[in-house]
TrEMBL record:
GO terms for molecular function: alcohol dehydrogenase (NAD+) activity; metal ion binding. PROSITE patterns: ADH_IRON_1. This is Alcohol dehydrogenase. Residues 8-175 form the Alcohol dehydrogenase iron-type/glycerol dehydrogenase GldA domain.
Amino acid sequence: MFGTFRSPAAVYFGCGQRMMLGRVAARFGQRVLVCTDERLAADPVFAALVNDMTANGITVSVFDQVLPDVPVTSVEAAVAKAGETEPDSIVAIGGGSCLDLGKVAALLHTHGGRQQDYYGEFRVPGPVLPVIALPTTAGTGSEVTPVAVLSDPDKPLKVGVSDPHLIPAVAICDPELTVTCPVSLTAVTGADALTHAIESFTTIRRPLTPGLPLDRVFVGKNFLSDNLALEAVRLISGALPAALKNGSDIELRSRLMAGALLAGQAFANAGNAAAHALQYPIGALTHTPHGVGVAALMPYVMQFNLRACIPEFRQIGEAMGCTASDDPEADAVAAIDAVEGLFRDVGIPMTLGELGFAEEKIDWAAEQAMTAARLVANNPVPIEVGDMAAILRAACRGDRAALAH
């Protein structure tokens, strides 16, 4: 047995738990920089959070210019704000972009330099300013992960900073913050979280060597992340379709947020794989949301990985309510069918053509996907550029059977 579990020092989950923010932030000092977006900053719920911090003796500064995909200019502006206010902690409130920006702002305020200095793994020299993360969507899991994904105009694809020092100090996950999340965003973020769970449950199992977690940010399949991932599959798949029909149902919202949290903790340790590597060039070319791309690709990547993942796919199917039979491979294929069917039911396109991806871009996209080395190395089946191209071709044509081995 082998397991790795890196996580915030504290995770607080439950309805109404957001109103502990002032007390939590006061433990880190008397000055806070809040990172959020312009829409959320105008919300009465946000005002209540700021008032709670103020009531606890905290001087609050707000940076409300977080932009989607975290461009360099947004990071620079947040770091400049931190330089002016010298916060004792950063409170990141919002979706994945807000949380990622808060993490990078904490890094740069602490250690200086540019975000480009930290691209890759294990590039952060030490602890960063404490981050308190409050997600308002049930999707990215950034509140518990060691990753921040950014945009850089000098790079063709999004880039990542991956280091355990980036894990927030505290995550406060309040499902009530997601109740006003629109149907389309609920579907996309829920699908994203489900892909996190599936890929972390089916990553490569590496040889057990002393110090593996010190050598890799993402250690691969292990029994601690497995339990988190499988429960995340059960929660998300069971709640997502119904939550789209009744977004005010707090029990469904709670299950989705719990599933996203557990999936985040799973991939924070095990890692993701080929579907996420392929999404980077797809997203760059089609300008479609990350969750849409990974979900559209997931059934095809699962089909490619089938021969190495029959037991795992079978367990995923059981977690989604599929009936087990005496034929393990048939059960594994049924699990892929169930994942594809769920994504179709919640409005995820089932081919890359529907995203606007052109087949003539396959070779370029396959080559670019291979540059996401940490994701490629995590795939349970060794994968080369030709394999990436085959997956993309099948996904363009809606032809999973072309990937059958």
